[in-house]
Amino acid sequence: MDMLLEAGPVVKLVVLILIYSSVVSWAIIFYKGRVVYRAMRESERFLDFFWAKKRFDLISQGLRDFPHAPLSVLFREAYQELIKGQKRREGEDVAPAFDLGGSDNVARALRRATTSEIQRLEKYLPFLATTGSIAPFIGLFGTVWGIMDSFHGIGETGSASLAVVAPGISEALLATAIGLAAAIPAVVGYNHYLAKITNLSNQMDNFSQELLNIVERMGRR
Predict the structure, then answer these.
(1) Distance CA 182, CA 17 (A)
(2) In which band, very low, low, confident or very high, does the pLDDT at 105 lie, cut at 50, 70 and 90?
C-alpha cells in the first residue's frame, strides 16, 4: 500500500483501473458460476422429466419447476407454437392462410429461443475477455510510465545509485503485477464458462432436433 501511495498520478490511475477491472471480473465470475451451473443442473433434471412424462400437456404443467433450465424455455416456446398452430387450424384466432406449417413454425420458435438463451448465458462474458486481453497492456503502460518517471528523477538529482532507482522501479512494476493479477482470473473464467455454455448450446441443439422429430411424427398421424 505504501508503494502505491508513493507512486506517481499516472501509475495510481492505472492501478485503480486495474483494481476496478479485477473486482468486476471476480463479481462476473461468481455470478456466471451461479447462472451457468444452475442452468446445467436444471437442464439435466428437465431432460429426465421430459422423457419420463412423454405427454406435452403434462410436461407443460411442470415447467414452473425448471425456471432456469434453457431446455424448458425451448420446450415452452415450441409448445406455445403448437398450441397457436392448433388454434389456427380450428379457425379460432387466425385465418388459415397464415398457417405456414406446424413444424416450420416450431423450428423457428426453437431457433429464436436457442439464440435468446445463449445470449442470456453469455451476458457479461465479453467483459472477462476484454479484461484478460488488455489488463496486461494497461499494467505494462503503467510500468513504462513509472520507469520513465524514475529516469526523469535520476536526471534531476544527478544520482543513479540503487537507493535512488530501486523505489521508482518497484513502484512501476507494481502496475504490471496488478495487471497480470486482473487478467489471469478473467481469462480462466472466460474460457471455463465459454466451454460450459458451448456444451449447453450443443445440448439445446440436440433437444431441438429431438423435439422437431416428435412434432413431425405427431403431424403424420
Answers:
(1) 10
(2) confident
Q: Which residues of 24-61 are buried (b: 16+ CB within 10 A; e: fewer)?
A: bbeebbeebeebbeebbebbeebbebbeeeeebeebbe
Coil, strand or helix: which one is 155?
helix
In angstroms, the CA 17 to CA 192 distance is 24
C-alpha span between 112 and 166 (Å, rounded):
59
What distances in angstroms separate CA 33 from CA 72, 187, 194, 198, 201, one per listed residue?
20, 14, 11, 15, 16
pLDDT attached to residue 194: 96
- Name the pLDDT band for 100 (thresholds 50, 70, 90): very low
DSSP E strand boundaries for the chain: none
**What's the CA gap between 34 and 121, in Å, rounded?**
11
185/71 Cα distance (integer angstroms): 30
End-to-end CA distance of the chain: 74
In this predicted structure, the answer to whether residue 95 has a pLDDT above a threshold of 60 is no
Residue 61 half-sphere exposure toward CB, CA atoms < 13 A: 5
Q: In this structure, what is the dihedral angle of CA atoms 171, 173, 177, 183, given to the nearest 10 degrees?
A: 110
CB atoms within 10 A of CB 4: 15
The pTM is what?
0.82
Q: Give the Cα separation of 22 and 190 in Å (integer).
A: 13
